[in-house]
Amino acid sequence: MSGYPANCSAWLTVYYQRKSGKWSYEWYDRVGYRRPVALGSTMECLMREVSDRGASRQEHSMARRVMAESGFFEA
Fold it and tell me: Do 12 and 24 touch, CB atoms closer than 8 A?
């Protein structure tokens, strides 16, 4: 998953390492690359599932659950 989580202005990419079964988070928080004002309130979660990397439906479901448990979907 990639995008702007709820209550965040930095871009986040969530990775799942299949071999180790671990999750990692990569924040892209550079000057000039913040959440655009035109996208509206930072309370809204604007994450998208990346489908071109071969992730299964089960992996997408796991990613949504991890994001929800981390509070990134909450407004």
Answer: no
